[in-house]
Write a structure and sequence with these properties.
heterodimer, A: alpha/beta, 2 domains, 10-stranded mixed β-sheet, 7-stranded mixed β-barrel, 19 strands, B: Rossmann fold, Dna Ligase, domain 1, Rossmann fold, 8-stranded mixed β-sheet, 36% helix
């Protein structure tokens, strides 16, 4: 079946439908990782987005039940040059196509993904629609596209109930994980280090967290515009003053910055991939990181009394990490939990453990 | 960290001659690194014995020594130049081993020279088997169960413990020389013995055989701060068991999930960190296809063939960055020169698929054992880029110049299904085509996996190609089908062949850019590959534009020399103000470096592929005379595309190859050539040979390196040779010439259309009959009379004029019975250009290119005629890779066998010959035994040579006939029994270690089962210098007689020769 990808600037790509066959509208973004499509699909941070993979052959190793970063795929649509009909890997359980159609995710294949990427690079991310079938009346979707925005993203992906994940081995610390759209490997990274992780809904109030008997708070990644989460930000202000060790990742990092009084801005086309160099200014070391974000903390809004920028992106000098002044709180914009991407930054979880031990940073 | 201030002058060690396992990739890496160092204001001293390299150009390094690559000469150069440091990680295994020797004997410490990039401890940890195992265990990286042994008995014991089959890997060798897989005690005994012998340190590793696991490689980099990155990972289509140099390799990996990809990536980074490498490193893994189990197979703490491939596959200049790291920079301080805006501390991401396909020499070595294993056999490789694996594989097959347009090997079509199934278990150079044929017969990917262990992902993809073949031959071709075939890279001629009709459409390809970042950032460096998308990223420009065709994969007969010429041509056209486009497909070369040309197209060199580039670029002209036969073959098509060929016109190339036209030209010029004629069939050939009288020379036209060329002594020879030649369909007739056994002479000349400049004449030590690429060549001639020299100059001038040469021309002569005959004329660059340019100081390609662009020699400050002789004698000595190619007869003949060359430069002939032989790897012992066994026709000439050996104090041994002959001439000589006779015989004598030199000629050879061939193979195994021509033997004796000692020889700075102009 044919399908088209329509961009809000009027560009139309003709391709073939795969996965589910329903019309979807979302924000079109690209990811440059060469592996890890299953992790991308199931990362809640992609909520509301039509994700284009720049690597041209997707689905080579199929999809399994283990590598999911959450219980379902969250992308609104998946854009590839080519999907693999006969995947091959010892853990493969089904093809990418089957996985997408089983989960109602619309895909489009057979388009010039490099051209699409260049358009997004030059003009910035924009709203688009994947229209399966032979519908010729493209204009009909223009209005819908114009009205589209990613809103209430965090409530849409956060859990409703508290879930406790037991520590591997002896319980060393109890950690409250605020689920703004957390990836499973954040949980694994902590339980593996002896943390009992209590996953809490994003809307959990500060007082309930502080009375929960936790040693530290983990703020997860998540989708959408960080500034729309005003209630969460208000709660974070309380948490930040509690003296409790806090580690924020991605959206968690942005929310902390907003709570501290800094600002966030939308990037032209974001950072999505597994190859972004980030310099840890204190160590004078550069690490390759896994990234997925469309917003960033405004560099100059991080004032010296608030804290210091500890990590910067070497490609565009954006803020990648903050240490808050006189507080046991730090955060990074990228994904030390990897999945997909390099595991080189797992040391940050160790630093969080050190903080909970009462060590200084 | 900025540039270290304790580094001012760096010695770079090159990798020496091209041999199997160590090819042009080190010239590419070395050149890039030298330029990167010079950019920092450092003075670069270079040593390399290989004159055909760009790195030995005076523009690339400041001081250039073309000297034997051994510690004696390196020490001499250190004493002249006083460098403060050595960069040993660019010269392959050769460079690394030499640096280790210098470090181990304390010389570097004593002379205060630092080792950059890798410390001796690092090198030892990576290279010494035991140290490597200990290092891996210390960081919990899994390795294959194994042990290091020093004797055959220990090997047997260990193998029993870990279980057969086992792999034997000698320590400190390149390309796995002397290794192999042993499945029982008997095989192990044999392989362990050669392995122990091949190892520099007398050690071999015996390990559990994990053949069938996936073979995955990572190219990683680390700087002095400890920053680590991965440049690229690669997956071998052929599982563990086939040397990676002989495997079809794909980048990035295709069948690894993110978990597996990251697991091996982290492991690579742990390893480079543990080894403390500052620069690049290659890590090879075996990955169990059914679990997360993996094992580290090998680590190379230096740039390598794989790093060259990774550089070209990603656009990331590994050698350049490695050099910057070695002199102090951090990865975060080095700019990414491809994007121009990001830094080198990032990981390239690909939005295309890359396939590397090896180029094997079995078309030349028809009797060689083609089985692939742990010993690399390929001489070169091609790389292709496409948006899917299928298209990349199709492009690679086209690029490899193996007479194939798609995956259909015609000789397989006649075989039964059963035979195809059986052939699948034979792992040789043609297995990929057997796989394709098996799929065509309906054998399933699963069945193929069971036999070959090739992942079904790859076979399913190849099956898509087979499916497309089926559709093209059975369906009506509509636009959708045609487009689909094009996206799988089916050429129009294949579409037409399969459908039996003209293609209903013809489309030009569009082009996409290789930019290291999958279009995330804007790129500065235009490096393109073809696609079938609508959107084309080539920006048309209004500049004057030229297109230069490269020479494709390195093979015997068309080596690195042609890349040298192509690169210089590109540089000269750029200097003249043209925008220059290069098309080539060889990832090992300087010509495909991202900044050599203005625009690089990584594409097959076929008419259809090239047509799309011409359509996209609209160049003003094409230059074909520097890219060997590969580029020359395109000349005719350029005319049909209305693209002017600059320089010598296409018809001259035909005229020089066409027997009748060329005879007419010779007649007009009053020049003689050996009598001969052209034939098509075997019977015509026999008639022609009888008419001319034996011996005759048989050869196909339009080939380089004398492919299929041989001397026939009788009708049977003719039949054998014609059979071999006609295995490949011949478009042109076969040439039969009377064979004149005289002195061979050769010139390369530059012609601007009016004036002809001959930089120098070369004289071959061996008489005609040994291919010019395999003979020792001397500049200037040592025994040429004035009138013969004048005749050569005159003939060259009149031929250049008659052929309307503009640019380069190469002419080969034979001096026979006091008369000069022309053997052949090649109106194009030749393999001697780099060496003559270097020793005469005449920048031949630069001048020739400027002539092609319309300048006159006089305006460039050069006159006509023979250029004044240089103050030095230069001797070019061929280098062979016989130890890698079992069953190949080492006897030299008209078909070229050498893979590379070295140069000896000195004030006298004897000294330069000595240097040349030494550089070629000969152990020039001054005592011991000489084994002589020659054909009857050589016995007379052997007598004086034998006598001279004896006077030098050598003990002579000979087989019955030869011994008797020498004894009858009163030369003491011991008779040795032949190999089939009881011991002690010739084989046990060779094994005894008593023999220093062997002189062996036979009237018949080639077939591996012949006793003479086996005896010569034995000499190869035992590293005994074996000469198969009395002329070479005589030259060697002369050199020994001169009593030259290494201590007396002075190294010569070649850069000074070029600067005298």
């Amino acid at each position: 079946m044919k399908a088209r990808l329509i961009l809000s600037d009027g560009t139309v790509f003709e391709g073939c439908s795969f996965g589910a066959k329903k019309l979807v509208i979302g924000e079109v973004v690209f990811n440059t990782g060469m592996t890890g499509y299953q992790e991308v699909l199931t990362d809640p941070s992609y909520f509301g987005q039509l994700v284009c993979m720049t690597y041209p052959i997707q689905g080579n190793y199929g999809v399994n039940d283990i590598d999911c970063e959450s219980h379902q795929p969250w992308v609104s649509g998946f854009i590839v040059r080519e999907w693999c009909h006969q995947p091959s890997n010892w853990r493969c359980q089904r093809s990418l196509d089957l996985y997408l159609s089983d989960n109602g995710i619309t895909g489009i294949a057979g388009i010039d993904t490099r051209r699409l990427t260049r358009i997004l690079r030059e003009r910035g991310v924009m709203v688009g629609a994947i229209v399966p079938g032979n519908d010729t009346d493209i204009d009909a979707y223009r209005e819908q596209m114009a009205a589209f925005a990613i809103v209430n993203a965090v409530p849409a992906v956060s859990c409703n109930q508290t879930i406790v994940y037991p520590a591997e081995g002896e319980i060393l610390f109890k950690v409250a994980l605020l689920d703004y759209g957390r990836k499973q490997n954040i949980v694994r990274s902590l339980t593996r280090r002896g943390c009992e992780v209590t996953q809490l809904p994003a809307s959990t109030e500060a007082k309930d967290i502080l009375s929960g008997g936790y040693d530290g708070i983990m703020l997860s990644n998540g989708p959408g515009d960080p500034a729309e989460n005003t209630q969460i930000i208000a709660q974070l202000k309380t948490l930040m003053q509690s003296g409790m060790p806090i580690f924020g990742i991605c959206l968690g990092h942005q929310l902390l910055a907003l709570a501290a009084g800094a600002k966030t801005e939308k990037l032209k086309y974001g950072h999505r991939g597994a190859n972004h160099p980030v310099k840890d200014l204190r160590l004078d070391r550069t690490f390759i990181t896994s990234q997925n974000h469309g917003y960033a903390v405004v560099f100059d809004s991080v004032t010296p009394d608030m804290g210091q920028v500890t990590h910067v992106n070497l490609n565009d000098n954006t803020v990648e990490g903050i240490k808050y002044k006189d507080l046991p709180i730090f955060s990074v914009q990228y994904h030390p939990e990897a999945c997909p991407g390099p595991a080189d930054n797992a040391y940050l979880f160790d630093q969080f453990i050190d903080l909970m031990k009462g060590g200084n940073r | 960290m900025p540039l270290r201030n304790d580094i001012k002058k760096v010695l770079v060690i090159g990798s020496g001659p091209i041999v199997i396992g160590q090819a042009a990739e080190f010239d590419y890496a070395g050149t890039q690194a030298c330029r990167s160092l010079k950019e920092e204001g450092l003075e670069v001293v270079l040593i390399n014995s290989n004159p055909a390299t760009i790195m030995t150009d005076p523009d690339v390094a400041d001081q250039v020594y073309i000297e034997p690559l051994n510690t004696d000469f390196i020490k001499k150069i250190i004493e002249i130049e006083h460098p403060d440091s050595i960069l040993p990680t660019l010269g392959g295994q050769t460079g690394l081993n030499l640096a280790m020797e210098l470090a181990e004997d304390g010389y570097l410490d004593r002379s205060g020279v630092k080792l950059l990039g890798a410390t001796p401890q690092t090198i030892k940890k990576a290279e010494d088997r035991q140290a490597f195992r200990e290092t891996m265990m210390a960081i919990s990286e899994p390795i294959v169960p194994s042990g290091v042994v020093q004797t055959i008995e220990e090997a047997m014991e260990l193998a029993t413990e870990i279980g057969y089959p086992v792999i034997v890997r000698p320590a400190y060798t390149l390309g796995g020389t002397g290794g192999g897989i042993a499945s029982d005690e008997e095989e192990l005994r044999e392989i362990a013995r050669t392995g122990l012998y091949a190892s520099r340190v007398g050690q071999v590793l015996i390990e559990r055989c994990i053949s069938g696991w996936k073979e995955i490689e990572y190219e990683v980099m680390r700087d002095g701060k400890g920053n680590v990155i991965t440049v690229c990972n690669m997956e071998n289509l052929d599982p563990v068991g086939v040397h990676t140099g002989d495997s079809i390799v794909v980048a990035p990996s295709q069948t690894l999930s993110d978990k597996e990809y990251q697991m091996l990536r982290s492991s690579s980074l742990n390893i480079i960190t543990a080894l403390g490498i500052e620069g690049g490193c290659n890590v090879q893994f075996a990955l169990n296809p059914d679990s997360f189990e993996y094992a580290v197979i090998e680590v190379n703490p230096r740039v390598s063939r794989s790093s060259a491939l990774a550089s070209k596959a990603t656009g990331y200049p590994i050698a350049r960055v490695a050099a910057k790291i070695a002199v102090g920079y951090g990865l975060d301080e080095i700019p990414n020169s491809v994007t121009g805006q990001t830094c080198a501390c990032f990981e390239p991401t690909l939005d295309y698929c890359v396939v590397k396909f090896p180029k094997w020499p079995f078309d030349k070595f028809v009797y060689a054992n083609r089985t692939l294993g742990t010993q690399m056999k390929a001489t070169g490789e091609v790389m292709s880029i496409a948006q899917n694996f299928e298209a990349a594989l199709m492009k690679a097959v086209r690029s490899a110049e193996i007479n194939m347009q798609y995956l259909c090997l015609s000789k397989l079509t006649a075989l039964s299904d059963g035979e195809i199934d059986e052939l699948l278990s034979h792992c040789d150079d043609e297995r990929i085509f057997v796989v394709a044929e098996a799929l065509r017969r309906g054998i399933t990917p699963q069945r193929i996996f069971e036999i070959t262990k090739i992942d079904t992902w790859f076979t399913d993809r190849i099956n898509r190609l087979i499916e497309m073949e089926r559709r093209l031959s059975s369906e009506t071709i509509d636009r959708a089908l045609y487009d689909e075939a094009k996206t799988l890279s089916f050429p129009d001629n294949v579409i037409e062949k399969l459908s039996g009709n003209p293609a209903p459409w013809y489309r030009y390809a569009s082009f996409k850019m290789v930019d290291t970042c999958a279009a995330e950032f804007e790129a500065q460096t235009p490096y393109y590959y073809s696609s079938w998308d609508e959107a084309c990223e080539v920006q048309p420009s209004d500049n004057k534009k030229l297109i230069v065709f490269g020479s494709g994969p390195i093979r015997i007969g068309q080596g690195i020399e042609f890349d040298y010429c192509s690169v210089h041509c590109v540089w000269a056209t750029r200097a003249a103000g043209y925008q220059t486009i290069i098309v080539n497909n060889n990832p090992e070369t300087v010509s495909t470096d991202f900044d050599t040309s203005d625009r690089l197209y990584f594409e097959p060199l076929t008419p259809e592929d090239v047509a799309s580039i011409i359509e996209a670029e609209h160049p003003d002209g094409a230059i074909v005379q520097f890219g060997g036969q590969t580029a020359i073959k395109l000349a005719g098509y350029m005319e049909s595309m209305n693209l002017p060929i600059l320089g010598t016109p296409a018809w001259s190339i035909d005229a020089a190859e066409d027997r009748e036209i060329f005879d007419r030209i010779l007649k007009d010029c009053g020049i003689e050539r050996p009598a001969g004629g052209t034939v098509y069939t075997e019977e015509e050939a026999v008639d022609m040979a009888r008419h001319l009288g034996y011996p005759v020379l048989v050869r196909p036209s339009y080939v380089l390196g004398g492919q299929g060329m041989d001397i026939a002594m009788c009708d049977d020879d003719i039949r054998e040779f014609m059979g071999i030649i006609n295995r490949v369909k011949q478009e042109h007739p076969v040439l039969i010439d009377k064979y004149l056994m005289g002195k061979e002479l050769e010139v390369d000349a530059i012609c601007d259309g009016e004036t002809i400049l001959i930089p120098g004449i070369m004289e071959h030590i061996e008489r005609a009959g040994i291919h010019s690429g395999d003979s020792i060549s001397v500049y200037p001639p040592q025994s040429l009379s004035d009138h013969h020299r004048d005749a050569i100059v005159e003939y060259t001038c009149s031929l250049a004029e008659a052929l309307k040469v503009i640019g380069l021309v190469n002419v080969q002569f034979v001096l026979y019975n006091d008369k000069i005959y022309v053997i052949e004329v090649n109106p194009r660059s030749s393999r001697t250009i780099p060496y003559i340019s270097k020793v005469t100081g005449v920048p031949m390609v630069d001048l020739a290119t400027r002539c092609i662009l319309g300048e006159k020699l006089a305006d460039m400050g050069y006159g006509g005629g023979l250029y004044p002789e240089a103050d030095y004698v230069a001797v070019k000595v061929p280098v062979f890779s016989f130890e890698k190619l079992h069953n190949v007869d080492t006897h030299l003949g008209p078909e070229m066998k050498s893979t590379g060359e070295v140069l000896g430069v000195a004030r006298t002939f004897s000294e330069s010959l000595y240097k040349g032989l030494l550089a070629a790897g000969m152990k020039l012992g001054s005592s011991g035994g000489v084994l002589l066994t020659v054909r009857d026709t050589d016995k007379d000439e052997l007598v004086p040579i034998a006598e001279r050996f004896q006077k030098l104090g050598f003990e002579l041994f000979a087989t019955e006939g030869t011994a008797g002959y020498l004894n009858s001439h009163l030369i003491p000589c011991q008779m040795v029994r032949k190999s089939h006779e009881p011991q002690p015989n010739i084989i046990s004598l060779l094994d005894s270690g008593k023999i220093t030199y062997m002189v062996s000629t036979s009237s018949k050879g080639r077939q591996p089962w012949r006793a003479e061939v086996q005896m010569r193979r034995k000499a190869v195994e035992r590293s005994i210098v074996c000469l198969t021509s009395l002329d070479t033997a005589s030259a060697l004796v002369q050199s020994l007689e001169s009593g030259i000692q290494v201590a007396d020889i002075e190294p010569i700075n070649i850069a000074l020769l070029s600067r005298r102009k």
